[in-house]
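Memo to structure team: turn this sequence into structure tokens by end of day. - J.P.
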Amino acid sequence: MSIATERITRGVPSRLRLHALALAKPTEGGLLFQREDGAFVLPWQRIERAFAATIGTGSDARVGFRLALRRGGDDCQIVQLDLEQPADAGQYARAMMLGLGPDSCDASLKTLAAEGIAPRTFVEAEVFDDAVLESMRWAASEAGAGA
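Reply from structure team:
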């Protein structure tokens, strides 16, 4: 492996670690969520990039968010938040844009915040997760190429 290739691939995530958040709500400081041992906040500063998509088709469709956490090493840690009530999705997207800044949000999330529709669509959640991992891999390899 050449020095240039090693520099490009170092820090590029190769594994996806998915964490589901239930009953999460955006707040000024981050996402408030519940676990068995209490309420916690995932601060906006821990999130590197946010993605949104419509998952499923027809009456089974829901809006999903994937939040890529700031990372180290080969793992890409993604927080999964799927909303069963699509009416809340625009509000969540607007809060994420305020908390993270528009540069940390994908185009689908920005459209969802502005128009109430996530134009990026996946039939299955797993395909969305894979697309997020590939997006993060691409961003990391681009950052490595510029180093």
